[in-house]
Every structure is written in C-alpha cells, then in structure tokens.
Amino acid sequence: MIECQLKIKQGDFILDVDFCTPAKGVTVVFGPSGCGKTTLLRALAGLEKSDEGFLKVGDSIWQDGKNFKPSHMRSVGYVFQEASLFNHLNVRGNLEYGARRANESEKDFMERALDLLDIRPLLERTTEQLSGGERQRVAIARALAVNPDILLMDEPLTALDLKRKKEILPYLDSLHDELDIPLIYVTHSPDEASRLADHLVLLEEGHVVGSGTIDEMLTRFDLPISHGGDATSLIEAKVVGHDDRFNLMYLDFSGGQFTVTDRELPLESKVRLRVSARDVSLTQELQTDTSILNIFSAIVDEIVPEGRSQVMVRLKIKDVTMLSCITRKSAELLDLNPGKQVYAQIKSVALLS
Amino acid sequence: MLNEFDITALFVTLKLATLSTLILLLLGTPLAWWLSQTRWKLKTILEAIIALPLVLPPTVLGFYLLITLGPNGPVGGMLESLGGASIAFTFTGLVVGSVIYSMPFVVQPLQNSFSGIGRRPMEVAATLRASPIDRFFSVAVPLARSGFITAAVLGFAHTVGEFGVVLMIGGNIPGETQVLSITIYDHVEALEYGQAHWLAGGLLLLSFLMLLMVYIVNRRFSIMQSSSQ
C-alpha cells in the first residue's frame, strides 16, 4: 500500500492530498494542467519538500511529520517529462550512473531494463545520437536500472510527437504487464489513462477529488470524467478464438463474449476494451434483426440527467459496469428505472493494447 | 635576448600565476556554486563586491591591500603579533593580492556555467541515488567543464598581466616580487627597447594562445557570454 498525505504551498497554489493506492499495478494521476500532478509526483520523489505530511511506500516511511527522507535515499525511479539524459555520458554511462549507486549487483537489473526497453543497440551512442523516442526509452531504462521500489513517470509522452508516442506506448504496455513494482503515471491524456491505468487518482486544483480502480472511477457519477462526450467504460477481456472466414476474433469477458475485427493477437492474450457511452444503445427486447453483433443482457444501476435532453445510464453486465448515453425521451419510452433488465447494444469498441 | 633578471622574473610570474589560479579554483568553485544555487536576497551585493576588481583601478586595490597587509594594518599587524612577519612586499603578499584581483575572472565563468546546467540534471542524479556531494562531482563539474577551462585560463592570464597591484604591494624585488610586467616597465624606463620587445612580444603571444585555447574549447559558447553576463 502507498499512503500519501501531503500539503505543499507554492505561492498561491496549495497541493493538499490524502490518498492510498495499492503497491502494485499502474496508478494514473489524472487531471488538467496546473492541477498539481507534477508537484505531487515530485513530492513523492522528495524533489519537492512538504513541511508536514506522511508518506509510506510499502514498508518504508519516506516522510513522517518533519522527518523527511531526501531523494537520493528513496527507492524511486523517476522519469521526467523530457528525457533529461546526462549529456556528458553516453547511453551506457547514463544507465550505469544509477545502477552502480543503487545496488551491489547492478548487473541483473541493468540487463532486465535493457531488454524491457530494447536498449542494447543504443548502448554505445552519445545522447545526441538518439531520437526523441529513443531518449525517452533510455530515460525509462535508466530509472528502472536502479531497481526501485516504485516507478514514477511524469507525462513521459507529452514532449513527443504522435509517431514517437506510438513507438513508446508498446513499451509502456510491457512495463504494465511485466513490472512487479507499482508505477505512478501522471498524465492529462484520457487515452493514456484508460490504456494504462489500473487505478486512478483524480486531481483538481491541488485536491484529490476521487481515487479508486479505473472501472469504478470511470463510472462514478459524482466525478466529471463519467460525463460528457468522453465518458467511457473499460472492459478487460482475453482472446479466445479467431474467425478466419469473416476476419473476426472473439474476446471473453466476465459478462459474456465480444466479437471484434481480428487483430491477429495470440489466443489467451489479454486485451483492454474501451466502450464509449455514446456507442451503447438500449432495447427492451433482444433484437435479432440488427447489424450489431455485441448485445448483452444488462441491469440498469443508476440514471442521471446529462444536459437537458440526455441521460447517462450505468449498467451492470454481471459484474462489469458500462455507461450508456441516450436521450431523455428514449429513457422515458423504455421506462428505465434502476433494477430494470435491458439489452445493451454496443456499436463499436476500441482495443487499447 | 633575455638577461638573468628577465628569466627570474619569468619564473616568479609563472609561479605566481599557477599558485593563484589553483587557489582561485579551490576558493572560487564552492563560492560560484553557492552563488548559482542560493536564493539569498543579498546575493547581488556579494556579486558586486566580487566584480569590483573588474572596474577598480589596480592602484586603488593595491593601496588598500598595502594598508591591510602592512605591519600597521589589521591583517599584517595580527600576523606580526602572532610572531610572523608582515606579508607586504613578499611573494605571499603578491599571491593574496592576485587572488583578490583575479577573483571575478574565475568566479563569473564558473557561476554562469553552473547556472546554465539548471536544476534538472541534479534532480535526475538525486533520483539515481547520488548524494549532494556525489552529484556535484559526477554531474555539475563535468557539465561545467567549459566554465572551468575558461576560469582557469582567464585567472592565469589575468594574473600574468597584472601590474598596478603588484607594484603597490609587492614592490620590485628581483627573485621575490619582480614580475614580467614590471620588468618590461623597467626596461622601457632604461630605454632597453630590444629587451622590452622580447618580453612584451612573448606575453602578447602567450595571451593570444591561451585565449585561442579557450575559444576552441568553448566553440559553442562565446567567451563574452560566459565571462561577462
């Protein structure tokens, strides 16, 4: 468990946070620019000092009241927004800098970081011989090579163009799958958040407005992210079959089976699906004469108004939560009420990883 | 050609410049680092004091040093009361004077280089487990390399070229405090233009070569930027 309770004053801005997040998986700290995300992350690393607070990562206490453990004594890996490589060292020198100081047997962690981020071909290059994406990969590997108890990443994709982003994202996915340490990832991009997060900490004007698992957070009506055009729900599924004739694949999730365009993923591979609330329509009877393939029986959980003409409906498909945005008129015609059984027709899903 | 006194003066000068440069780097590095990092409000006053020798007539500086270091001055008097001798008109006195006189030429390039590094590389080093001392030597010093070269060369060259301060506090004792610039003056006074030419031309060439080295090493940074900002 990571327990964080910090208060930092910077001029007019006050960061005042109090939250817990599990010591495994990816916790995304999400919020608009200027909400204090970076300050929070810097405080976790000890780069920003708070006068009072409590910070515990796993079993070790990093701050307790006025007792403040300085950065170099905290077992963190930190990836800054810009790669911030040391220009006086080559790639190998950058990686060894931390590895040599952090652990006696630096080799294993070095090797692992090199493999995870695919650094070997770059080792003898100078930092000027790297592209933007390569620089950021080296920076991530450098942070991992110290074998930290926690990895902190501050919008590592923001400084990169779309092409470079796409180059890095698969590496972030593999971190997500293979790291056994917690990763705290700061971003203002809903795409990155929904792709990577297991847990979400929502930050607004220096305060935590909510924290919890990503699917719970995305469908909580008291939070702004469950409203508007961006409202989505996430579903974890795995590949169970391919249909060569129609070029489709079948994905099992705890509420049923999805049929989606084949991406030639191996069987059993885990995927994360994103379903936009606007792509989910509701029917009272099971439609059979429809072009929509993905239809699931669902129970209405809660309905809240969304603007003047629409409503947001939270559905339960067994234990999976999904949002549907429909018109207020349709809701009335269908006589929707919490507890009512309906069919959710899903027009399109996006595969995230 | 050079006579025996010229050769002696050359050695005194080189010894003085080398020693002063080493002391300047030892004192100037922590001072420049501190100036580049501190948010102390009165920092500008200290910066102005360090920069004083840039604008002060050397004779003014030399005069006050003479007063201070002489047997009746606060420092000289203290030294005498401790059983030592006054350091005015000694080589030690020259070193003290040179260190003060050349201080801005060492501190300013270093301070600018340290400021130019920014906070980020030091923060990165901290998250990579480097202690404050460790990250100073493993990150700040190598990244400020060009500042160190500029500082060393300017400090050395400026000490070689000083005249007024030396004349005021060092006098003109052959083998002890007689330096090249004063020897040139003596030759000219004695109308020995040939010998003055040898020494003056040599110093001109030396200064040019040293500056050339600075420019080659710092090709990317102009010397004006790093030494006069």
Describe the protein's topology.
The complex is a heterodimer of chains A (353) and B (229).
Chain A: E1 2-10, E2 13-21, E3 26-30, H1 37-45, E4 52-57, E5 60-64, E6 67-68, E7 76-79, H2 91-102, H3 106-117, H4 132-144, E8 150-154, H5 162-178, E9 183-187, H6 190-196, E10 199-204, E11 207-213, H7 214-218, E12 232-243, E13 248-253, E14 256-261, E15 270-276, E16 280-283, E17 294-306, E18 310-317, E19 320-327, H8 328-333, E20 341-346, E21 350-351
Parallel strand pairs in A: 3-9, 3-10, 7-8, 8-9
Antiparallel strand pairs in A: 1-2, 1-4, 4-5, 5-6, 10-11, 12-13, 12-15, 13-14, 15-21, 16-20, 17-18, 17-20, 18-19
Helix pairs in contact in A: 2-3, 2-4, 3-4, 4-5
Chain B: H1 4-37, H2 43-55, H3 58-69, H4 74-81, H5 91-117, H6 120-127, H7 132-143, H8 145-160, H9 164-170, H10 180-189, H11 193-217, H12 223-228
Give a written overview of the molecule:
The complex is a heterodimer of chains A (353) and B (229). By secondary structure, chain A is an alpha+beta fold. Chain A has helices spanning 37-45, 91-102, 106-117, 132-144, 162-178, 190-196, 214-218, 328-333, and strands at 2-10, 13-21, 26-30, 52-57, 60-64, 67-68, 76-79, 150-154, 183-187, 199-204, 207-213, 232-243, 248-253, 256-261, 270-276, 280-283, 294-306, 310-317, 320-327, 341-346, 350-351. Chain A folds into two domains: 2-226, 3-Layer(aba) Sandwich (Rossmann fold), CATH 3.40.50; 232-351, Beta Barrel (OB fold (Dihydrolipoamide Acetyltransferase, E2P)), CATH 2.40.50. Chain A contains eight helices and 21 strands. A six-stranded mixed β-sheet of chain A has the order 7-8-9-3-10-11, sandwiched between helices. In chain A, strands 2-1-4-5-6 form a five-stranded antiparallel β-sheet, covered by helices on one side. The longest helix of chain A has 17 residues, at 162-178. Chain A is globular, with a radius of gyration of 23 Å. The mean pLDDT of chain A is 90. Chain B is mostly helical and 229 residues long. Chain B has a single domain, classed as Orthogonal Bundle (MetI-like fold). Chain B has helices at residues 4-37, 43-55, 58-69, 74-81, 91-117, 120-127, 132-143, 145-160, 164-170, 180-189, 193-217, 223-228. In chain B, α1 (4-37) runs parallel beside α5, α1 runs antiparallel to α8 and α8 packs antiparallel against α11 (193-217). Mean pLDDT of chain B is 87; it is low at 222-229. Chain A binds chain B through residues 45-47, 70-74, 76-78, 80, 82, 84, 86-88, 97-98, 101-102, 142-143, 146, and chain B through 120-121, 123-132, 134-135, 138-139, 142-143, 145.
